[in-house]
Predict the structure.
Amino acid sequence: MSAMFRSFASFNFRVWFIGALVSNVGSWMQSTAQSWVVLTELTDNDAGAMGVTMALQFGPPLLLVGLSGWVTDRFDRRRILVITQLTLLAFSLAIGLLLLNGLMTLPLMYCFAFATGLVLSFDNPARQAFVSDLVTRENASNAVALNAASFNGARMIGPAVAGVLIVAVGTGWVFLINVIAFAGMLGALVAIRSGELIPRKKADAGSRLADGFRYVARRPDLQVIFAMVFLLGALGMNFPIFASTMALEFGQQADGFGLLSSILAIGSLVGALLAARRARARMRVAIFATGFFGVVSILSALMPIYWMYAACLVFVGFAVVTTLTTANGYVQTTTDASVRGRVLALYVAVLMGGTPLGAPLVGWVAAEFGPRAAILLGAVGGLAACAIGLTWVIASGRLRRRAGARLGLELAETRPIEIITRPIPVAVPEEFSDQGAQTSAIKLD
């Protein structure tokens, strides 16, 4: 099996991948329908209302980060996912029925968005951490990248299908179709073989919620990663606002909006597959990808016609997924297994938690100054994230002069030895070493 798809050697991962693909198609259909409902049915093209909806949905993970991470480390992750998926299924069914009967209102949609965010607070970290339970440590980074490929492969299909269905039968039916799509994830969770799951060290009852914060406080590299994804999530990843308002500016309807989201996913899928080929996740890749995002976002804001804007979105999607897949893989493969759930909960909270702050601002800018100004604001977020990463690389001493190197500069693979605060013990094969993770990324090839 090729290096790109090596995680498929695991039966559990194959089942998970297929189930997640089906479920993610439905999720993207629903996400597209929700954005269109808020923008065109519940308001008169109010991008600010979209920003509030996104803020309510993505705010709870930030508020509950300590609790959700502790739950992920303490309890069986598969059971957590079964509970969260069944709850989300019930929400989709209720929203669909309310829309079909003409009973949905904007305040009610706000309530559903907030309730969904509460459930996702526990679903997202459990889902992220569960991927590393399906494969061996050596394949963890590859599994994260392939999981992202499944997510973005679904993104190529879901929004385009949703756009056509919205025009043909209405938004309510899109939510009801997503109810059926939940069978993919639930079926995979039932089919996974418990005996083949990778053993992990669970947090005991006495583990503290603050342990995840303390761990990250000792890892300046993780702090930089978190700062970068926060800026990207807060300002740059408000695609429902960008794509829907640009679609209206170009005179498109729901199908045109859905097609833009699917085109964005083409670049996202390419980025995820290329990440799967890499032996390990490198911080430098995430840094350069954020800078590339800023540049192509600026170019997209300047495009005069629909198809030129759509073409730019391929590169935007590539930059975003390269950043996030690399950052996620780096966090997973360099974090001690005993606190990985809590650290991943922090990661997800930082990524999604930026939305409550950024989405209302971006929505307001789009409503007051137009969607192009909002896209430029997102580009600023990407360039700022790149600047933070580059500043840390230089300040940490990893970038140094070396004769014969390209441009006369060399980027070291490890951080300076002086940040180690205690001796490094002999590595334990089953777990990642806390101290070792503080000095270098674990080489997986």
Q: What stands out?
A: DSSP finds 17 helices and two strands in the chain. The first helix runs from residue 11 to 41. The CA atoms of residues 88 and 116 lie 7 Å apart. Confidence is low (pLDDT under 50) at residues 414-445.
